[in-house]
Amino acid sequence: MKLTLHHINLATDKVEEMDTFYRDVMGLDVPKADVPALEKTKGYAGDVAFRSDGAIQMHLARRDMQAGFRTGHVVNPVDRGHIAFRTDDMEAFKAHLDAQGIPYSDWGHTAVKGWWQIFFYDPDGNVVEVHQRVAD
Q1: Which DSSP state fits 81?
Q2: Which ranges of the chain would DSSP assign to H, the alpha helix?
Q3: Per residue in 45-100, pLDDT tens?
Q4: Are residues 28 and 50 in contact, defined by beta-carbon separation less than 8 angstroms?
Q5: Which of 18, 51, 63, 125 would be a feasible disulfide site paired with 28, CB 3.0-4.6 Å?
Q6: CATH number, domain at 19?
Q7: What's in the keyword line of the UniProt record (predicted)?
Q8: What rounded mean pLDDT belongs to the chain?
Q9: Residues 91, 63: contact at Cβ < 8 Å?
Q10: Under 8 Å between Cβ of 119 and 104
């Protein structure tokens, strides 16, 4: 099971302003590949802007305090934002979390088409995502 840093998600009420800032001030481009296709009919329909330095993506997502309630998930990834890692073996990673006694919320394909996502908290309460690309 391998993990790689994939993206940092900032939850915001100013998606357009944040997108302009990270484009014009920070010089980040739109990712050339691997841009997620949002599943806007499954519980989170917020706007998201995508930027990248060429290696790591930044997702600027409309804050949605109710997404967890609408989808029935304990961890809400668009409340405060999150840091995300990609794995090549979700089952092994979930078994690893279970062995460590770390509870997680399995969002499956609720938010992003072709991604299996889980979310959990680090010891300081920051949301962490781990996802695996899967066939649609």
Answers
A1: E
A2: 15-24, 67-71, 90-100
A3: 788 999 999 999 999 999 888 888 888 888 888 888 899 999 999 999 999 999 99
A4: no
A5: 51
A6: 3.10.180.10
A7: Dioxygenase, Oxidoreductase
A8: 89
A9: no
A10: yes
Q: Are the C-beta atoms of residues 111 and 41 closer than 8 Å to each other?
A: no
Name 91's Cβ contacts closer than 8 Å, sequence gap at least 6. none
Split into its structural domains, the chain has a count of 1
Phi, psi of 93 (to 5 degrees): -70, -40
- At 85, list the tokens: 């890692």
The C-alpha atoms of residue 17 and residue 47 are separated, in whole angstroms, by: 12
Which residue has tokens 């499956």? 108
- Report d(CA 56, CA 73) in Å as an integer: 26
* Separation of alpha carbons 4 and 132, rounded Å: 11
Residue 18 structure tokens: 């944040």
